[in-house]
């Protein structure tokens, strides 16, 4: 039984059960002891009562005997008086205390008791003279005393008989009651054993039920672990997909941003400058929105952080709305906006997220309004609250469909979604962003009349921003800054070195992590910053940084700024860089300005005139236009080509690009060989290397085709890959002609 309890129940449960049983038995024992002692006391009282009645009757008999002896002259008067004193005392004990109370409870002897008291009182009167004059005891007094004693003997005899009968009856009743109690106790013990058995059975059943539940929970735990594993794999697949999509979207968008930057020095009229500014802001906003969508997973996980800074709210709204107002007018839709004059100019907030929310709401309004007007209002409320409203005269939304508007991947009308190619993520992201700002968002709409989307956030008023206009002055690195570039790709080495030297820095190149580690250990006092590639032979970037940080701590050196150079933009890649000890990231491909912005956060800078003017570099407007073909992606990245033209002299740039074109044939031969042998991994790596080189030199079409081959290397058939390679080969000739037409290479190779 004990082994069974140990198997089914925990030690704590067993202790509690045994304690309860022990306490119950202890209570029964104590109750029995109390009952036994009470019964003993009652028995002792009955015995005392019977003994007192017997002593009373016996003393009456002894008094009669003494009286008889005194008449015969056999005893002295003093013996008679002593015997009377004893008789009187026996009477007093019989009628006082607990015995007296018990006598009073006996109603059938009360007459005899009272008669005996009267008799003794009369005898007291007769005997009283004998205390003074014993000689007065004569035959007459003796005869009277003898009569009184005889009568008293009869009374005490009756009292003794009745008392004995009462005690016998009481004990008989007690035995009968005790017999009933024994039966009741036996019945209770039977019930106790039965209930104990039921309790043990219930405990065993409960234990078995608990075991079944534990087993079910264990099975459920395994299922949940498997589900979590599947969810983790799905999340990883989603992250990889987002990383690929990020690269594919960023490539053409970089061309838009670069073209806008190129046109900055071409346009002269104020109206054209305004158009160009709107174009640049739209392109930059689009890039910010893409980055925000890529961060949606982070928002879902609750780890999203806002970048609160002082912002010019009026300027933010004007710049954003100006891009909509300057769009080519649509035939039936107009856009208007109004800003409350009482709206504070400078507030604390995340300008990028605020722009994203507003743009999403306005874009939706324009998308779903076939005819009429879209209005955007900004109002100042009490308590630093600001209300943003977007009103349209579009198709409207029914009340039952409004509840799902802010749910991810949901759209009200599938036919509208097909026409406008929506994903259903925009409003869900807006809701998460507004909630992160401690605000709320909502909608009111009527089908056929239009919709009103609004959100309200609290933005504290800030002091006016003080700073220089970035268009009037530029920062450049001072000549004493020494930067170590760790990069295994020769073309990327040349590009990075050229950009940094253009910015005024001294550059040292290391081809792998081990070489960089040796250089840092030998000349750490001469190096100000490190640009570290992530994937390199011999030793990769993260491992190099980890080893350097250990060396740095062991020798108590000042912390060296180390920036990662990588084409990966997902959060897990950044986390890997930061965990290894890096300080920041610069994403490939990068322009000279982006490179400078990444570096200047970690190095001391000074205000100098524009480097292009100071060094006598020709403005980009003197460069011939880059060749493009209608209906096809551009062969060259115009913005990056002009950056290269500004960075290198003509001879160096010609040698750099000529080397790329010359080595293209070698790369192509390796690609064909890998495809023929179905060495998919090597094919992907070679395509990745070609893609990086093409992006660094502005050969956009070759880079895009190489990226396509890299993505399809694991899934496409050899025949499909052969078609992709043939397309890549044809791009070499057209890219070479485009470089020649742009004046980037001097002549035929």
Automatic annotation (TrEMBL):
TM regions (residue ranges): 181-204
Lineage, highest ranks first: Bacteria, Pseudomonadati, Pseudomonadota, Gammaproteobacteria, Oceanospirillales
Region (Disordered): 605-632
InterPro entries, alphabetized: CheY-like_superfamily, HATPase_C_sf, HATPase_dom, His_kinase_dom, HisK_dim/P_dom, HisK_dim/P_sf, HPT_dom_sf, Sig_transdc_His_kin-like_C
Annotated Pfam families: HATPase_c, HisKA, Hpt, Response_reg
Name the record gives this protein: histidine kinase
Superkingdom field: Bacteria
Domain HPt stretches: 649-742
Stretches of the chain forming a coiled coil according to its record: none
GO molecular function (one): ATP binding
Catalytic activity field: ATP + protein L-histidine = ADP + protein N-phospho-L-histidine
Species of provenance: Vreelandella gomseomensis
UniProt keyword list: ATP-binding, Membrane, Nucleotide-binding, Phosphoprotein, Transmembrane, Transmembrane helix, Two-component regulatory system
Sites of Phosphohistidine modification: 688
EC annotation from Swiss-Prot or TrEMBL: 2.7.13.3
Domain Histidine kinase: 244-461
Residue numbers bearing the 4-aspartylphosphate modification: 533
Domain Response regulatory: 482-603
């Amino acid at each position: 039984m004990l082994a069974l309890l140990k198997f089914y129940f925990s030690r704590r449960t067993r202790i509690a059960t045994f304690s309860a049983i022990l306490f119950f038995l202890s209570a029964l024992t104590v109750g029995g002891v109390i009952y036994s002692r009470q019964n003993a006391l009652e028995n002792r009282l009955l015995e005392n009562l019977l003994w007192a009645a017997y002593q009373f009757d016996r003393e009456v008999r002894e008094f009669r005997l003494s009286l008889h002896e005194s008449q015969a002259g056999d005893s002295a008067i003093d013996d008679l008086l002593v015997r009377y004193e004893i008789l009187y005392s026996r009477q007093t004990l019989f009628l006082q205390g607990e015995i007296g109370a018990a006598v009073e409870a006996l109603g059938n002897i009360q007459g005899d008791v009272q008669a005996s008291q009267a008799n003794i009182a009369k005898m007291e009167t007769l005997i009283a003279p004998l205390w003074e004059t014993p000689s007065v005891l004569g035959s007459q007094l003796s005869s009277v005393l003898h009569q009184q004693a005889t009568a008293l003997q009869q009374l005490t005899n009756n009292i003794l008989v009745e008392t004995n009968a009462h005690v016998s009856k009481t004990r008989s009743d007690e035995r009968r009651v005790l017999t009933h109690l024994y039966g009741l106790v036996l019945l209770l013990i039977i019930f106790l054993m039965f209930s104990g058995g039921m309790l043990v059975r219930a405990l065993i059943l409960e234990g078995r039920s608990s075991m079944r539940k534990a087993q079910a929970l264990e099975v459920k735990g395994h299922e949940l672990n498997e589900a979590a594993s599947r969810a983790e794999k799905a999340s990883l697949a989603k992250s990889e997909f987002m990383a690929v999509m990020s690269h594919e979207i960023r490539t053409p968008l970089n061309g838009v941003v670069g073209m806008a930057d190129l046109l900055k020095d071409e346009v002269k009229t104020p109206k054209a400058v305004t158009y160009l500014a709107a174009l640049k802001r739209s392109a930059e906003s689009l890039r910010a929105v893409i980055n925000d969508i890529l961060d949606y997973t982070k928002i879902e996980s609750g780890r999203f952080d806002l970048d609160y800074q002082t912002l010019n709210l009026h300027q933010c709204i004007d710049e954003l709305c100006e891009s909509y107002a300057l769009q080519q007018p649509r035939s039936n839709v107009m856009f208007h906006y109004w800003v409350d004059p009482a709206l504070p100019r400078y507030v604390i907030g995340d300008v990028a997220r605020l722009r994203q929310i507003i743009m999403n709401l306005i874009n939706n309004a324009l998308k779903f309004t076939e005819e009429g007007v879209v209005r955007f209002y900004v109002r100042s409320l009490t308590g630093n609250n600001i209300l943003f409203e977007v009103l349209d005269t579009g198709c409207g939304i029914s009340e039952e469909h409004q509840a799902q508007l802010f749910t991810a991947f949901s759209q009200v009308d599938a036919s509208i979604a097909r026409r406008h190619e929506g994903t259903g993520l925009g409003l869900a992201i807006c809701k998460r962003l507004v909630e992160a700002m401690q605000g709320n968002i909502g909608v009111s709409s009527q089908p056929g009349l239009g919709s009103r989307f609004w959100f309200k956030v609290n933005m504290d008023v800030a002091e006016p921003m003080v700073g220089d206009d970035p268009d009037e002055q530029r920062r450049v690195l001072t000549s004493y800054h020494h930067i170590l570039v760790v990069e295994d790709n020769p073309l990327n080495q040349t590009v990075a070195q050229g950009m940094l030297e253009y910015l005024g820095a001294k550059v040292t190149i290391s081809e792998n992590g081990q070489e960089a580690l040796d250089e840092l250990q030998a000349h750490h006092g001469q190096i100000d910053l490190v640009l570290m590639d992530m994937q390199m032979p011999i030793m990769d970037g993260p491992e190099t940084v980890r080893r350097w940080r250990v060396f740095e701590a062991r020798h108590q050196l000042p912390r060296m700024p180390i920036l990662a150079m990588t084409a990966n933009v997902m959060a897990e890649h950044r986390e890997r860089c930061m965990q290894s000890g890096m300080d920041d990231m610069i994403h490939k491909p990068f322009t000279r300005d982006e490179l400078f912005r990444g570096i200047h956060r970690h190095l001391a800078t000074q205000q100098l005139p524009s480097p292009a003017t100071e060094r006598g570099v020709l403005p980009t407007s003197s460069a011939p236009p880059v060749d493009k073909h209608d209906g096809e992606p551009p062969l060259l990245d115009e913005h990056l080509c002009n950056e290269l033209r500004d960075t290198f002299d003509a001879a160096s740039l010609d040698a750099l690009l000529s080397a790329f074109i010359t080595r293209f044939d070698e790369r192509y031969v390796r690609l064909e060989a890998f495809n023929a042998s179905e060495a998919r991994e090597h094919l992907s790596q070679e395509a990745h290397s070609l893609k990086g080189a093409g992006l660094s030199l502005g050969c956009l079409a070759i880079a895009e085709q190489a990226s396509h081959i890299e993505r399809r290397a694991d899934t496409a058939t050899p025949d499909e890959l052969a078609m992709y390679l043939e397309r890549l080969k044809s791009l070499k000739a057209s890219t070479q002609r485009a470089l020649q037409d742009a004046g980037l290479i001097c002549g035929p190779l």
